Each structure stands twice: as C-alpha cells, then as structure tokens.
Automatic annotation (TrEMBL):
It comes from Parapedobacter indicus. This is Multifunctional fusion protein. PANTHER family: PROTEIN TRANSLOCASE SUBUNIT SECD (PTHR30081:SF1), PROTEIN-EXPORT MEMBRANE PROTEIN SEC (PTHR30081). Forms a complex with SecD. Part of the essential Sec protein translocation apparatus which comprises SecA, SecYEG and auxiliary proteins SecDF. Other proteins may also be involved. InterPro entries: SecD, SecD/SecF_arch_bac, SecD/SecF_bac, SecD/SecF_CS, SecD_1st, SecD_SecF_C, SecD_SecF_C_bact, SecDF_P1_head. Residues 491-663, 791-981 form the Protein export membrane protein SecD/SecF C-terminal domain.
Amino acid sequence: MQGKGLIKFLVVVVTIACLYSLSFTFVTRKVERDAAAYAKGDFAKEKAYLDSMAGEVVYNLGIAKYTYREAKGNEIALGLDLKGGMNVTMEVSLQELVRNLANNPKDENFNKALENANVRSRTSQSGYVSLFVEEFKKLSPNATLASFFATKDNSAYVTANSTDSQVESFLQRESTNAIDNSFKVLRTRIDKFGVTSPNIQLQQGTNRILIELPGVTDEDRVRKLLQGSARLEFWETYHNVEIYPMLENVNGALAATLKETEKATGTTADTTQADSTDAGLLATLGASQDSLDASDSSANQLALQNPLFNVLRPATAMGPNNQPMLAPGPIVGYAQLRDTAKVNRYLASSAVKQIIPANVKLLWGVKPNPQTPEQLELYAVKPSGVDAGPILGGNVITDAKDDFDPQSNSPMVTMYMNSEGAREWRRITATASADANNKQAIAIVLDGVVYSAPTVQGEIPNGVSQITGNFTIEDTKDLANVLKAGRLPTTAKIVEEAVVGPSLGQAAIDAGINSSVIGLLVVLIFMIVYYNRAGLVANIAVVFNVFFIMGVLASLNAVLTLPGIAGIVLTIGTAVDANVLIYERIREELRLGKSIRQAISDGYQHAMSSILDSQITTFLTGAILFFFGSGPILGFATTLMIGIITSLFTSIFISRIIFEWMLTKGWSITVSRPWSNHTFQNANYGFVRNRRKFYVISAAVVLIGIISIFTKGFSLGVDFQGGRTYTVRFEQPVNLEEVRSNLNEAFEMNTEVKTFGGDSQVRVTTAYQIEETSDEADQAVLEKLNSGLAKIQGNDYEIASSQKVGPTIANDMKTRAIYAGIASIVVIALYILLRFRKWQFSVAAAITTVHDIVIILALFSILDGIVPFALDVDQHFVAAILTVVGYSINDTVVVFDRLREYLGLSKYKKEDEGETINLAINKTLSRTVITSLTVIFVLGVLFVFGGEVIRGFSFAILVGIIVATYSSIFLAAPLIADLDTKKLDESPAADPRSKAPLKPAKA
C-alpha cells in the first residue's frame, strides 16, 4: 500500500485530536458530578457551585489551561430532547415594522395591503416587504409609497420624490436591520439569563430566530424575557468617588451580618428563617466560613472582614505621586465573572438595601474589557428622569452608524436623534459638561446592561453625537446596533416552542444509549460470524469510526440530539458498507485463484469506485437535509455526514493498515466461513427477464398508496399542520376514548389524542386558538387542557412536554420539505449523470427514487391508526425519507458501477445487453443483501430500543431500507433495459482511476 507511513501518521494525529476534543466533556462532567454531590439535590446550591467554578481552572494541560466556562464551551452539549429545556422560534413582526415606519396611517387600502401581505406570507416564499408592495400597488395603483413613508424620521432615506422602487429598497433594508438587531438583543438577553450551552441562530432569508435553551425549567420567565420590548435608555452617572463611601458601608454591614451569625449559632448561618434573598446571602457568607475552617489563613480572615471587597475590587488608578487613588468616571468596581452572582446576592439582601439610597442604581457592563477578559465592570447610574428613571429614552434615536474618527482613525459610533431628542440631548449634554474639571458621563443602557458610558466633552446642539473610546471595530458595530435597537418599530413574538421535561430527557438519553450499544454489538457479532477474521478487522474499523464521529462532533461544538444519536446508530450500520464491498470483491478475486495478498490489493482497488460513488450520493442527501432542516434534524444530518466521512477513512485506511500488519506477521486472513463462503456465488436469477412482473407489483402498490393518500391522507405532525402538542403522563393506564371525549368537550372541537410510549402516556394535539401566539392564548389552551384532563377521576397526571407551532411556521416547513425532496432527486440524478455519463442511468435512478418515496408515503397513510405507535408526517419523517433516498441510490450505484465496468469490456459489448445487466445485478447481490441486513439489524434495534420519540422515524427508515433494497435489485438496473439501450454499448471504459482493465468473475 502506497503512502502507508503517511496514513499511519494521519491516524495517530486524528486519534490524538479526537481524544483532546472529547477530554473537555469528561472534565466538565466531573465538575458537574462534584456540584451535584455538594448540593445533594438543592438545585440553587448546585447552580451557585457551578457559578463559582466558572472562572476556575479545571483542566491543566501544561501548555494550556482551561477554566470551567472554557471547557464547557468545548464539550459535547446535549440537545433539548436529551437534557430537557425549551426550543423557541421567534418571529420579527414585519407587518408592525412597516406600519410604524409609516407612522401608523389610517388609510384603508394601506392597512388592507398589510393584512393581505401577512396572509400571503404564510404560504409564499417571497419576502413580506415584496408582498406588501405588490398588494399596495393592486389596491392603490395611483398612490405612491413615498406619500406614506416620507416622514421626518425617515427623511435621510425617503423624500416626497422617492420612487416606489427606492422606498421598497428602504423597507427591505429596514426589515433586515430590524431582524439583525432583534437577533443581537435576544442574544444579549440569553447571555444574561445564564443558560448553559445556549444556541441562537438567525434563520437566513427569513424573519425568524431559532433559540435553544437546554436545562431551562422556568418557561414563563423565558417567555417574558424573550418577548419583552428592547429598552434602550440614557442615564446620568455618578463619579466613583461619590459611591465609594456607600460601598464601604455595604462592606461593613455584610461583615457585621456574618459576625452576628457566628455569635448566634457558633457555626455556619442557618438560612431557614431568612427570606430567599438573605438566605442566598447567608449561604454565601457561610461558604466563606467553611473555607476559613478548611484553611485558617490571613487571606481568608481578610475575606471575612471585607466580604464585598473580596469579590468586588474598587476601581482605582495611580495618582500623581504614584499613589493609588479612586479612578475617575462612573465605574465603581470590578468583579470576576464567576463572582458576579455573589455580588448580586450581596446587593439584593435586605440589610444592604437599607444602605443603598433610592437614587443610586448599580448596573453591570455588557461584557468584559479585552484587557481583562475575566472581569466585569460595575457602573453607578443616577435615576434623575421622569418617575426616577432614565434621563432620556431610546425612542428618540433615528439612526446610528459605526464609523472612524477622522482625526485618530480609530473606530467610533455616530448617533442621530430626532428633533425632540435633539432638544433634550442639548440640555443634557450642556449640563453634563458644564464643569470643565468634572465632566459627567452618560450611560447607554439596553435591558438593564451598560453598553457604553462616554464622558460628555461639550454641548451637542444638533442631535448628532460621536461616541469614541477604546473600541474595536466589532465593538462599534455592536454599539450601533444597540442604539438602533432602541427605536425598533417592531417586536419579536414566539411562534413556535417546544418544552421538554428533564424526566423525558433522561428517558431519551437511556433510549439513545441503549440503542447505540445494542446496535453496535449486533453489527460486531454479525461481521465476525459472517466474515470470520476479516470481520474482526471490520469491527475494529467500526469502533474507530464511532470514536472519530464523537471526536469530530466535540471539535465542532455540535449539539447531540436524539435524532443525532439515531444518525450515529445508522452510521454504525452503513459503516460496514464499504467493508462489505471490499470483502465481497476480495472473495471474487480469491475465486480467480489469486493469493490473499494480491486479492486484498485488487479488492481494495476495484471496490474503490463503488465505495466513493455510493458514499458520495448518501453524503449529498445529508447535505440537503442540513440545508433544508432545522433543530434536531440538523443534528441528524450533521452526524450522518460526519459518519460517512469517518467511515470512508476507517474502512479504507485503518482496515487496510491492519491487513498489511497481519500479512507482515504471517497471520492467516479469512474473509468467510465454510457456510458463508458460497453465498450467492452462483446466483443467476432472471431479474431482467422477469422485470415486467415487478413493474406490475410496484405499480399496484403505488396505485393503492395514492388512493389511500388522497382519501385517507396523513396524520400530520404539529410542525406541519400547526397547533399545540402536549405529552401527558398519567400514573395509571388510561382509556384513550375517555381522554379524547373529555378534551373534545373542553376545547369544543376535535382533538387528536394518541398513545405515546405506553398506555399511561398520551400525546394531545389541538388547533384551539392556533392563530394566537400570545402568552394569554398559551395560558387559555393550557387551562382548557387541564380542565379536560381533570375529569379523569383517580388518575394523577403531569405534562411532560409541550410544543407550539404557528401556521406560518407549519406552512414554511411543509414547503421546505417538498423542496428538500425535489432537490435530493435532482442533485443525485445530476451526480449520476456526471459520473456515468448516460442519461439512462440517471433517469432509472430518479424513477426508483420516486418509487421508494411514494411507497413509504403510502405505507404511512395506510398503516396510520393500525399500528400501535404514531406515524406522524413531520420533520423527522422528512429526514427519514431523505435518508432512504440516499441509501436507495447507494445500493443502486453499486449495481450501476458494476454494469459500467462490464459494458466497458469488449467481451460484453457483443453480448445481449439484458444479460449483461442481469449479470451485474447477480454479481452484486451478496453485497446488496449483506449490507441491507446489517442496516436492518441496527434499525430494528433502534426501532425497539430507541424510544417512542423516534419510533415513527426509525420505522420509516427501516421500511424504506427494505423498499430501497427491493427497488435497487428489481427495478433500477432492469429499467435501463427499457430506456433506449441501443447506445449502451458506447458506454465509457472502466473507471479511469483503475490502472488496468477490470476482469469480472465468471458466472
């Protein structure tokens, strides 16, 4: 084998890299186990422990040290379905945006155009602004858009003479800005919320933002946090020297509290009688006492005497005589990120609240300074505006741009205000800069976090301000977006959400682990039983493959979901595909009388074309899934694509290295057992001769399926039809009809109720108030649900999970699913056309692919309500369909590759083409059957042990693999015989990558 040394080096490097990537997960899990042991079931105590560890070094590699926060960012994060939490899709209201940009006109046609565009946007792929402009022109052909949008606030972009095209461009730009700014605001809010491993994605080309919050339990708080309006405010500030005496008093009060606690108890403070805030304070102080007991050092003594200043360092600077002094400006202290929660508990205690006057507010900065990446600044602002609030609101901002200071060429921000804001700003800045020796700073605050606090250098008369400082380009972009967010003339609402309870998440973890382990064992055992010692080599490659998949996922910071685990399990089955191709080819070479060394070499060489073609087509379907999918489907697509790459690496290189080593050692290598040596060896079935019989069988099944599809239809999942879905778990088995009857009465409409994972658990789907996405509507639906469930006497229940999908989201998902299916067929057909350079191959592959899709759709329609598990057509079903498409093409390409090989040899050019096609099918039959069996084995395990959440998903793939195996044998290649075969003898020669003509085995 050429380049053996390089391949060995590559294997070692990849192995070390994967070990490094996975090591972070082991480190963070240990810290979390320690936290759980320390807390003993107290969630608040466990969270406080982890907060305190955030900035502590927990992983020391010598050349690099990682804090818990950094290690956490590099671990394999668990998705919502494995950990529990919330999955939320926010939608920015572009209808509200356009209306507000026009200052809420009363024109009937204008508002009708807004409504019509809103309705059309639910099913159209065009953007909302384009739809609005179309509707406006229909309703008001003689009016101009400028007559509505040429307002004072928009004067920099729209004038009375602006054309409709110019106004439309302005609206498109404003809608893009609104979506981007909403994204940044939401990201900042989520960072403040303190969720571990959150995921927030702007769905490109849409006005939607996907948010995943693993581990969240307070759903109401999340909804309020995400849906609240962005509050941009300007606050007057205090000088540090004015606030320091107050902080000294706070520090003294905290120290006194600890001393009194020690006198009263003689031990760590008892928090049972304290209010919740003081309980947190005393627990913190108690922890300090514990640390003192552990190590009676002078540092700990000082910490007990100065509890606040132990975690909040006063802002100081060097004075004229190199003596420390209080730093000028509004920053009053610095705290390590890990200590900010402790500072907040101190400041929120009742004892401290009595010291801090009402006209002082302490606010954190938005992020650490680059020079001190582990520290956060604390600012002191002055409530001096209306109702003791900010001095000015952010609604006066008309625009903000990131720019460069022409004098220093450093990044800055230019801020523009409307006329009302300019008048107030002139007064505010004049006051702030009146004392040349004591100029005040104005804090720019969004959602209670300080983004910047520039010092006012002089009166600003025209409302145009330049904000300079120690900014990077990214800082100015963020600050400009924050300022524009303050005038966001729109809101973001939750249009889809899924809530998964932690108990359901643990059940999903158990199901995923069980299915993975059992699936792996089944494949390993089968390979050894069927391929003897070569099977052991394949097993080593499979184990390496799983290890590499996990390592790559960790290095990509991927989120592991239950469909992702399903992708790994499926990859375990398909990972042996390349090995089977190689082994079957080796067996053919051995039957030609070659030595084992030569047979292995030729087997790898001759199988390479089929391996690459089959795996590339499957990879393409994974890429299409990744492009069109969202949420958990992305996890499945990611693991599928990674698995294909790693399986190619392990089956081609690692297994070859092992074989070379065994040959060097003189070990006997066997690729079969006596009973399996002649499997399908002399197969000579008349697939082509009898093809029309199979055409009739397939046509009959397709016809029955189409009739069922158009008459019975499908059971659409909530993500395709919209609505709210709840998983309800009862203590005892329930009567399904009783639950359905009670809920139909409660909702006053038909409600879908299905068993879900057993007789004591049901899934409820209702379209009640589906058009409403407000919190009030959510509560109303929940009340109806509880009123119906409460009628079931003597059977307590809990709502384990919930999901909400708005009609717009549902229609978009259906459209994307259709596009994904069409794209997969087109892309694969084009690939086959490029690789085989004959349209007959491409058309035959496309026909069999459509056949497989229709059969699966038909079975889901026919069997829905008959089988004892849910057969919903949803996103998971689309993933299953595309996976089957990839696998079907995988099988078909192997047959095509052998056929191309035969047609490139002069011997077969003179023979009947139908017989040549038939020979190609028979010669690849063992590979097709063996590979299908291994995949069916692991899918059977996934179906039985994978859990109810993905049972329909695994059933679709399982059935699809069987159908795909059938179509690749009985339909795909035989179809070529009916597609203008006159020119098949002009097919290109054998794969140009081969160095010599390929010799087929004798029939």
